[in-house]
C-alpha cells in the first residue's frame, strides 16, 4: 500500500535515519520508542508535513488517503463539529453516522471548545474517518486521558479497525499494552538519527514479544 | 481563547453626555463667540441640514472615505498577509513600509496634488498611500501569528487554497482585520478632511476651511460633530454587530458544562 523510503543524509543533524519499509493494507502498527526520538516526525513525514526530512520518498502516497489524529484535536474552533466534518468532505447523513460511530450523537452543533478533552479527541477521530482513510495516523491517542477513558477509546479504535478491515493504522504510543490490544505489527524507533530497531509482527506470541522488548529496552 | 462578557448598556451613556454638560458650563462661563454653547452649535447644524449644505458635504466626504477605505484595506491586507507569510517578501518590503509609515500625511497630499493636479483621484490616492502601511503592519502581525498546528492540519487533510483562506486564515485574522478597520476608519476620515481642505471644492474639509477663514467656530464644531456622529453610527451599526457575529464561537455562556 505504502512504500516508505526515508534517507536521512545530506542534513546536519537529521532526526530520522535511513528507514525503508512497507505498510500493507490492514496493517495495524504500533510505533514505540523513547520520547523525542522522532516518532511524530515520522508521522509528519508520511503525511507530507515535514519539509526538513530530506530525500523522503514514498511510493503510493499520492493516492493514499490519510486520516491524521494529532495530539491536540486540531479541529477548527470556529466551526461546529458538523461543519468540521463537512469541510473534509462528509455530507448530510454521513455526518450523523460518523458522530454516532464515535459516540457523539447530538453534538453536531457544538463547537470543539465546548467539549471535554476525550470528546474532542473522539470528534477528531470522526474527522479521520470522514476522509475514508486507507491509513490512520494516530499520534498518542491515549495521552492525558484517565485510564477509564483511555480504555474506552482503545476499545472504540479497535472496533473501528474491525469495521474497516482494509484500513491500516500507524499508532504512536508509549504504552506496550496498547500494542498488544491494537496492533498486529510493532515498530521500535531508536537511535540518533533514529532507525527502526524493531519491526516485528505481533502474533500469538504477543507476550513473548513484549517480554523481549521489555528486556532489551528498559524504558518499557 | 477565553471569552469576555459584555459591559452593561448604560456604560455607553456616561462619558459623552458628561462631556456635553462640561462643554455647556465652560461656554456659559466664558460667554465668547470663540466657544459657542452646544445649543448654538445645534442651531447651526439644523440650519445647515435644512439648506442641504450639510448632506452635500457630508456625502462628498463619506464617498471619498468609502472609496479610499475599500482600496486601502484591499491593498493593505494583501501586502500584510504576503509579508507575514514570506520572509523574503518581508525583507524586501520592510524598509519601504517603514519609510511609508513615517511619511507625513501632509507630504503625500501635497505631492499628489502637485504631480496629478487638484483632482479627485489625486485626493483619494493620497489617502490610500497614507493608510496602506498601517493596515499592512497590522495584518502582517496577524499573518505571523497564524497557528502552525492548524496549518499542518489543513495540509494533512488537503484543504484547497480557498478552504485554507476561508476556514483557517480568515477567522484567525479577524481580530486584526477589525483593528485595521477601526483604526483605518478613524485615520482615513481625518486625512480626507485635510485633503479636502487643501484642494477640493466640497466636503466637510472644504467647509471647515471656509468657516476657519471667518472664525466661524459654531460651523466648525457643527460639521465635526456631524461627522463624528456618522462614524459612531458606522461603529455601532456595522462593526460591533459584525464582531459579535464572528466571535460567537468563543462566547462564555456556550462553554462546556
From TrEMBL, chain A:
GO molecular function terms noted in the UniProt entry: ATP binding
Q: Which InterPro entries match?
A: AAA+_ATPase, ABC_transporter-like_ATP-bd, ABC_transporter-like_CS, ABC_transporter_ATP-bind, P-loop_NTPase
Pfam families xref list: ABC_tran (PF00005)
Chain ranges passing through the membrane? none
Q: Which UniProt keywords apply?
A: ATP-binding, Nucleotide-binding, Translocase, Transport
SUPFAM superfamilies associated with the record: P-loop containing nucleoside triphosphate hydrolases
Answer yes or no on keyword Nucleotide-binding. yes
Domain ABC transporter, which positions?
1-216
Family membership, please give it: Belongs to the ABC transporter superfamily.
Q: What is this protein's record name?
A: ATP-binding cassette domain-containing protein
- What organism is the protein native to? Marinobacter koreensis
TrEMBL record, chain B:
Q: What is its main location?
A: membrane
Q: Which UniProt keywords apply?
A: Cell membrane, Membrane, Transmembrane, Transmembrane helix, Transport
Note whether Transmembrane helix occurs among the keywords.
yes
Which SUPFAM superfamilies does the annotation name? MetI-like
Annotated transmembrane regions: 9-30, 62-84, 96-116, 212-239
Q: Where in the cell is it found?
A: Cell membrane
Query: Where does the record place the ABC transmembrane type-1 domain?
Result: 58-238
Membrane topology according to the record: Multi-pass membrane protein
Record-stated family: Belongs to the binding-protein-dependent transport system permease family.
Q: In its UniProt entry, what is this protein called?
A: ABC transporter permease
Amino acid at each position: 500500500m505504502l512504500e516508505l523510503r526515508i534517507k536521512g543524509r545530506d542534513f546536519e543533524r537529521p532526526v530520522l535515519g535511513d528507514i525503508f519499509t512497507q505498510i500493507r493494507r490492514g496493517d495495524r502498527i504500533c510505533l514505540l520508542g523513547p520520547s523525542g526520538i522522532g516518532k511524530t516526525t515520522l508521522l509528519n513525514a508520511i503525511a507530507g508535513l515535514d519539509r526538513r526530512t530530506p530525500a523522503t520518498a514514498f511510493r503510493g502516497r499520492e493516492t493514499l488517503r490519510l486520516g491524521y489524529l494529532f495530539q491536540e484535536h486540531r479541529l477548527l474552533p470556529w466551526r461546529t463539529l458538523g461543519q468540521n466534518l463537512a469541510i473534509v468532505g462528509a455530507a448530510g447523513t454521513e455526518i450523523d453516522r460518523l458522530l454516532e460511530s464515535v459516540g457523539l450523537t447530538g453534538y453536531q452543533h457544538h463547537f470543539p471548545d465546548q467539549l471535554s478533552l476525550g470528546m474532542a479527541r473522539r470528534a477528531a477521530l470522526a474527522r479521520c474517518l470522514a476522509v475514508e482513510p486507507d491509513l490512520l495516523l494516530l499520534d498518542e491517542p491515549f495521552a492525558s486521558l484517565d485510564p477509564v477513558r483511555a480504555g474506552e477509546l482503545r476499545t472504540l479504535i479497535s472496533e473501528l479497525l474491525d469495521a474497516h478491515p482494509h484500513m491500516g493504522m500507524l499508532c504512536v504510543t508509549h504504552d506496550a499494552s496498547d500494542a498488544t490490544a491494537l496492533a498486529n505489527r510493532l515498530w521500535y524507533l531508536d537511535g540518533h538519527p533514529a532507525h527502526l530497531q524493531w519491526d516485528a509482527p505481533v502474533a500469538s506470541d504477543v507476550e513473548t514479544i513484549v517480554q523481549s522488548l521489555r528486556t532489551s529496552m528498559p524504558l518499557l | 481563547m477565553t471569552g469576555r462578557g459584555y459591559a452593561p448598556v448604560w456604560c455607553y451613556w456616561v462619558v459623552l453626555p458628561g462631556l456635553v454638560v462640561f462643554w455647556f458650563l465652560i461656554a456659559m462661563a466664558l460667554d465668547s463667540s470663540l466657544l459657542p454653547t452646544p445649543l448654538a452649535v445645534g442651531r447651526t447644524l439644523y440650519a445647515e441640514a435644512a439648506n442641504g449644505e450639510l448632506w452635500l458635504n457630508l456625502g462628498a466626504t463619506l464617498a471619498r472615505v468609502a472609496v479610499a477605505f475599500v482600496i486601502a484595506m484591499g491593498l493593505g491586507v494583501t501586502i500584510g498577509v504576503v509579508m507575514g507569510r514570506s520572509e523574503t517578501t518581508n525583507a524586501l518590503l520592510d524598509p519601504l513600509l517603514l519609510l511609508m509609515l513615517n511619511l507625513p500625511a501632509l507630504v503625500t497630499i501635497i505631492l499628489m496634488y502637485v504631480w496629478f493636479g487638484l483632482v479627485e483621484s489625486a485626493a483619494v490616492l493620497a489617502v490610500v498611500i497614507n493608510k496602506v502601511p498601517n493596515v499592512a503592519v497590522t495584518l502582517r502581525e496577524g499573518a505571523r501569528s497564524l497557528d502552525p498546528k492548524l496549518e499542518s492540519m489543513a495540509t494533512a487533510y488537503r484543504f484547497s487554497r480557498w478552504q485554507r483562506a476561508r476556514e483557517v486564515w480568515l477567522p484567525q485574522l479577524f481580530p486584526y482585520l477589525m483593528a485595521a478597520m477601526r483604526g483605518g476608519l478613524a485615520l482615513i476620515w481625518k486625512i480626507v478632511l485635510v485633503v479636502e481642505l487643501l484642494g477640493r471644492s466640497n466636503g466637510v474639509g472644504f467647509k471647515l476651511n471656509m468657516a476657519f477663514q471667518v472664525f466661524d467656530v459654531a460651523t466648525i464644531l457643527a460639521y465635526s460633530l456631524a461627522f463624528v456622529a456618522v462614524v459612531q453610527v458606522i461603529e455601532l451599526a456595522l462593526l460591533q454587530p459584525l464582531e459579535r457575529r464572528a466571535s460567537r464561537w468563543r462566547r462564555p455562556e456556550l462553554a462546556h458544562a
